[in-house]
Design goal:
The chain is an alpha+beta fold and about 90 residues long. It has a domain at about 10-45. The chain has two helices and five strands. A five-stranded antiparallel β-sheet has the order 2-3-1-4-5, covered by helices on one side. It is elongated and about 45 Å long.
Length: about 90
């Protein structure tokens, strides 16, 4: 595995519409997570980390956040030593 990796993933997080603002605030407080949009109980969230394992931990944080009903990954990309691809390395 390369030493200089950068991973980014995006997720759709579903909550009850009335819970959107509080869940969004909770997610925004986690380093590596950012809420980009919130509408009618649907949040678009990105996660950034140095390894795919960091992303897995951030995904687990999303799933365990109070009032979250579901988390669906929709995109993953990583860069390693200047090369970018959307596939996971085979050894991961």
């Amino acid at each position: 595995m390369a030493n200089n990796e950068y991973h980014v993933s995006s997720f759709v997080v579903r909550v009850r519409p009335q819970d959107g603002p509080s869940v969004s605030g909770a997610i925004q407080s986690v380093v590596g997570l950012e809420v980009h949009a919130e509408e009618a109980g649907k949040l678009i969230v990105t996660a950034e980390g140095g390894t795919v394992h960091e992303l897995a931990k951030l995904s687990a944080v999303l799933e365990q956040t109070d009032k979250v009903m579901s988390v669906a990954p929709i995109y993953h990309e990583f860069s390693s030593d200047g090369e970018s691809t959307t596939s996971l390395p085979r050894d991961e």
